[in-house]
Amino acid sequence: MVLRIFGDSISGNCLKVKWVADHLGLDYEWIEIDILKGETRTADFLAMNPAGQVPAVVLPDGRPLAQSNAIILHLAEGSDLVPADAYERARMLEWMFWEQYSHEPYVAVARFLVRYQGRSPDELEARLVERGYGALQRLEDGLAGCDFLASSGVSLADVALVAYTRWAGEGGFDLSRYPRVQAWVARVETALAITD
Fold first, then answer.
1. Model confidence over 53-98: pLDDT tens digits?
2. CA-to-CA separations, 120 to 116, 131, 164, 173, in angstroms, rounded
3. What is the DSSP letter of 99?
4. Cα gap 125→94, rounded to integer Å
5. Across-strand partners of 29?
6. Which one of 55, 98, 99, 157 has the fewest beta carbons within 10 angstroms of its own beta carbon?
């Protein structure tokens, strides 16, 4: 049995898993799940992942795993995407935890509301926009003097954060304010051969 990835191609969180699997040359089956049609709420899906969210995977041994950053960490264990140095590994995790708490809830949510619910960026809650710009500024500051977030090469920190940062414009955010972020997005896309 091969790795099965249940994901929605419009989701940066799902694409993180695909990019890591591709980078590592893993054999996998992609199962497209349309979140807009409620396909994460079916009985079969909920039996696999009671949280009713994508991405979710079923490992080759049949065990399920959910949450994008947990999945990519499991898949990339022992690879070049996880720094060998303990401090750099901790920095990678620091960025990954921050991404889910202080970046994705603003940048990704704004994108969803604008692109998939048809709202104008001007209609978004001011706090959402303010925090999204704050997250982008934190990235800009964090990239001062370095090419990647946690180590000298691309790591899971970069995978986790590039997913929605590269699409921030779809949520109404002006990435031209952040030249280091723009250059970093291009470096990560090149390093991981991202075309999605």
1. 999 999 999 999 999 999 999 999 999 999 999 999 999 999 999 9
2. 11, 17, 18, 12
3. I
4. 27
5. 4
6. 98
